[in-house]
Amino acid sequence: MLCHRRRGTEGTTALGVLAGYTGIAIHDHWSPSFTFGCDYGVCNEHHARELDGVTERDGQAWAQRMKIVLYDGLDLKHRYHDKGQDIPDTDITAITKRYEQCLLDGYAVTPEPPGNPLPKRGRPKRGKTLSLLDRLRDRTVEALRFLQDPHVPWSNN
User: The whole model's pTM is what?
Assistant: First the structure.
């Protein structure tokens, strides 16, 4: 087992994690995992669990709808990719539009945190729900990559 004093980008680079890897790495949004120089997909099972948390914690309906969108995408993957076929562009477009609408709905009901008059180091805290929305928005391509590429799994589990 290898070990490094730093667990982020510095440590993973020093240990040669995914050095020279040219495939598509599927992971759970850990920021250093986006620094390996390959293409990425993100684990939608992790998203589903976080969306359950939003539903249970905040009672926000968009989160349950987003989970349904992701599982509907998985159904398409099974229906087409498992038979060696591409998912039709119209189906990918429909899933993508539903995904984007869920994001809009989520931002509409999730208030921005109040500003802190005393600046602190680092990024301001956004809370679990806004952080999830930001990740889903900023990594839409990676979250839905499984629809485009039959070799990309829906989850890394």
Answer: 0.81
Annotated domain spans of the chain: 41-114+123-148
Residues in the chain: 157
Cβ distance 55 to 64 under 8 Å? yes
Residue-level pLDDT, tens digit, the chain, 157 residues: 666 566 655 655 665 565 565 666 675 766 656 566 657 788 899 999 999 999 999 999 999 999 999 999 999 999 999 999 999 999 999 999 999 999 999 999 998 887 766 666 766 677 899 999 999 999 999 999 999 999 999 998 7
The C-alpha atoms of residue 34 and residue 53 are separated, in whole angstroms, by 24
